[in-house]
Amino acid sequence: MSEATRSAAPETATKPAEAPEEICIRIADFNAWYGSFQAIHNLSLEVPRNKVTAFIGPSGCGKSTLLRWINRMNDIVPSANSRGTLMIDDLDVLAQSTDVVNLRRRVGMVFQKPNPFPKSIYENVAFGPRLHLHTSRRELDELVEWSLQKAAVWDEVKDRLHAPALGLSGGQQQRLCIARAIAVGPEVLLMDEPCSALDPASTLAIEDLIYELREQYTIVMVTHNMQQASRCSDQTAFFFEGKLIESGPTQDVFTKPKEKRTDDYVRGRFG
Ligand SMILES: Nc1ncnc2c1ncn2[C@@H]1O[C@H](COP(=O)(O)OP(=O)(O)OP(=O)(O)O)[C@@H](O)[C@H]1O
């Protein structure tokens, strides 16, 4: 290459190509209702694989409604209805033919308030694998340990695996619920304000955990806490009155939002 050609070559030619972002969840023209009330209007969003996507927005804007459609939790709400496209890879989540039990194995959920079963720590984690996987006792023991380690709670519970889960602190219970969710090998983890019932130290522990878990799982998290969204998400989607106002890399949404409503919200001017 001559000197002249080299200097004219585009800069990108010398940079290693970045791997394109893989999409895990595709939502298009999605609408949701409770009876005649429309909670979500014509929403389209792509959720990248192995990233944390935060849903933010004022109370009642539809964040939890969308989250709960991703694993069809809204099936248990008689008035809930939806229309549009919601795909996880090739799986058509909203199709009548979709096996909801299998869907929920692929898409785990962690709720606002830790909700362990009134059973032992071990049994909480072993429950799902016993239902879905055919494992020997030894494999089950290993899986329980692996899940508790992954959820960063093993060291605190390893000596009392057969003690009641309800005896754990709130933060430990939430990490146990994360262990329970990952024990069945999901691809996606949905988290609906997972730290809102926790003290600041437990919140930081869960945030660190969420950030680490994204290496293996695609995570979608609803949060009211702007610092939390900026600390532990890669992509942020801002909702307002049932509509998606904007989404993009978290840094951009927080520092140079495209829409004035997003700017006002992330700066705490309303909501
Ligand atoms: N089971 C239900 N029946 C009827 N209306 C509902 C139901 N659940 C939610 N809604 C309504 O749907 C709209 C969206 O609610 P949703 O819970 O999705 O909002 P959100 O953004 O998650 O709010 P928050 O941040 O307060 O949890 C609200 O107006 C709410 O009142």
UniProtKB/TrEMBL annotation:
GO-annotated molecular function: ATP binding
SMART domains: AAA
Lineage: Bacteria, Pseudomonadati, Planctomycetota, Planctomycetia, Pirellulales
Name by which UniProt lists this protein: Phosphate ABC transporter ATP-binding protein PstB
Membrane spanning residue stretches: none
PROSITE patterns: ABC_TRANSPORTER_1, ABC_TRANSPORTER_2
Family annotation (Pfam families): ABC_tran
Nucleotide-binding among keywords: yes
Domain ABC transporter, first and last residues per copy: 25-266
Domain of life from the UniProt record: Bacteria
Key words of the record: ATP-binding, Nucleotide-binding, Phosphate transport, Transport
